[in-house]
Design a protein that fits this description.
Length: 553
């Protein structure tokens, strides 16, 4: 798919706003996370005229704060949620098919302390693979102590002499959202970020659109549609209460945090599922020069914030699970190079602990006709979108013979992202690490990104000038935060990524017409945002203040 065919450019925003105000759409989607993006693509490829509005940036909430795995949720099998496991396990292959760079195959490893536990895990994994229709060549491997010593020397084989290694998929959640939105735009959808719904439009007893606030200009405009889909994630109840102010709450919000360590302090080669002190499963995921560890699962009572705070006990809880299972010593919160926290919107089940609440979605239709999607998992977003379209078909004409499910932007290559990275390195003269990073972020569009520039913006940062241009021209990046957190991901996956932000702000400022004051504000905002994620509300900062000030002063 040509990038010009699905272009959402920062410089085209005014035109898109004008189109949104002038037309009546088939579908207005509120929410630019993975659910909204999936619905936008499914609807637009079926011929519907779609408008999607997002109050912040695309994927700014939950959909950029996950564990970044396309997986079937093996732990839900133990809880008897077979249907959820079956659906999500099978969806893994579908996402890999349309975006192999954003669903790259990885070994996920479960350690076992005893032979009996090992056999139990083997039985569970075999069931999981049958439910997910896993091919014979991708089925699990059974590792003993001598195998572990070769493939993962860091594991404490004295305590965990056995393991099961099975296939799951590593994604980039925010870029998966962007790929779906760009594909929807390629089918004619109008996509807008920073357009917050502040009211609903009605005709008699039906909701016929919304009043949205352009948070950049302060202008309000009415947008009209035959149907409205509420896909606002943790904030779906805000929209529901605009229609029914006295409505009873339907969600439980829980918070999950991840902490990022330099790879040199946690040099694992595979993704591991290990036990926290309370036996809750924790992911340990290597990615480039870092390893991230997560996630927690605690009730959270403040849905107003997009950036939930991170506390020292949460970080200590995650790090405490590592020394017992790996040969690492002295890990401290101050070793973190970044962190992120996100909110899950779960359908309330009173009396259950957060980790016990089902991750199944619930789709409801309000008296005014708004279709609301609550709950759900990243892996199952496509199936949820198809359910929503089935409901839409009861009220408006929907093309039942949709266009083929073509690859998402960047997904049209052979499927082996390692081979793609090596080819990119050879063609462009990049080192292996840079080529691997670019291939995983941009897939088949890697060469097009690099054609815009492949100069590092700082010797110690992996960010390239071509990525900045690409993010503005084809991915609607309008702020420096958009670029470093949700387009290039340098704030999360690198140890020195933010060293490039001054140069990046210079490029963005020249393209978007920023004056010096705006450039300084953008840089200050990102630095403050990054520091706040590592400054804990109930204890000393994770940040090495002296080193931070020396680097960024």
């Amino acid at each position: 798919m040509s990038p010009l065919a699905n272009r959402i450019s920062a410089n085209s925003r005014a035109k898109r706003l004008s189109t949104a105000a002038d037309e009546t759409f088939d579908l207005l989607i509120v929410g630019g996370g993975i659910t909204g993006a999936g619905v936008a693509l499914e609807a637009s490829r079926r011929g519907l005229r779609v408008l999607l509005v997002e109050g912040e940036d695309y994927a700014a909430g939950t959909s950029s704060r996950s564990s970044k795995l396309i997986h079937g949720g093996l732990r839900y099998l133990a809880k008897g949620d077979v249907d959820l496991v079956r659906k999500t396990a099978r969806e893994r292959k579908a996402v890999h098919r349309i975006a192999p760079h954003l669903a790259a195959s990885r070994r996920m490893v479960l350690p076992a302390q005893s032979r009996a536990r090992w056999f139990t895990l083997r039985a569970a994994i075999s069931t999981y693979e049958r439910l997910g229709q896993v091919s014979r060549e991708d089925r699990h491997e059974n590792w003993k102590k001598r195998d572990l010593a070769k493939v993962e020397p860091l594991i404490n084989t004295d305590r965990f002499p056995f393991a099961i290694a099975y296939r799951e998929y590593l994604t980039d959640d925010a870029r998966l959202v962007l790929a779906n939105l760009r594909a929807a735009a390629g089918h004619g959808a109008v996509i807008l970020n920073r357009t917050r719904v502040v009211g609903l439009l009605r005709e008699r007893d039906r909701v016929t659109g919304a009043v949205v606030l352009d948070t950049q200009s302060g202008e309000r405009l009415g947008v009209r549609a035959k149907l409205v889909v509420n896909a606002a994630g943790p904030w779906v109840e805000d929209l529901l209460r605009m229609e029914s102010p006295r409505r009873e709450p339907m969600l439980t919000l829980t918070k999950g945090i991840h902490v990022v360590l330099p790879r040199e302090r946690m040099p694992v080669s595979h993704t591991w599922v290990v036990g926290a002190p309370d036996n809750r499963p924790i992911f340990v995921v290597p990615r480039g020069e870092v390893v991230y560890v997560g996630t927690t699962d605690t009730v959270y009572g403040d849905p107003a914030t997009v950036w939930p705070g991170i506390t020292r006990p949460e970080v200590e809880y995650l790090l405490a699970s590592l020394p017992t299972q790996f040969r690492v010593e002295g890990l401290k919160p101050s070793h973190a190079v970044s962190a992120w926290g996100g909110l899950r919107a779960l359908v309330a089940q009173p009396g259950k602990r957060p980790s016990e609440i089902s991750r199944n979605e619930e789709i409801i239709t309000s008296p005014g006709g708004v279709i609301t999607v609550a709950g759900g998992k990243l892996t199952g977003y496509r199936a949820v979108a198809k359910k929503v379209l089935q409901l839409c078909a009861d009220r408006i004409a929907v093309n039942e013979t949709a266009a083929d499910e073509a690859p998402l932007p960047g997904g049209d290559f052979g499927g082996n992202v390692g081979e793609l990275a090596r080819a990119v390195a050879s063609r462009r003269g990049l080192d292996a690490q840079s080529a691997d990073r670019i291939a995983h972020l941009y897939g088949a569009e890697s060469d097009q990104v690099l054609a815009l520039g492949q100069q590092r913006l700082h010797p110690a940062s992996p960010l390239l000038d071509g990525e900045v241009h690409w993010a503005m021209r084809y991915e609607d990046a309008q702020t420096l935060e958009d670029l470093v957190y949700r387009r290039s991901r340098i704030a999360l996956y690198t140890t020195n990524g933010l060293l490039a932000i001054d140069a990046a702000a210079q490029i963005m400022g020249e393209a978007l017409g920023w004056d010096e004051r705006r450039r300084a504000h953008e840089c200050a905002h990102v630095r403050a945002r990054f520091a706040k994620d590592l400054e804990l509300g109930d204890g000393p900062s994770l940040l090495d203040k002296e080193a931070y000030d020396e680097t960024f002063a």
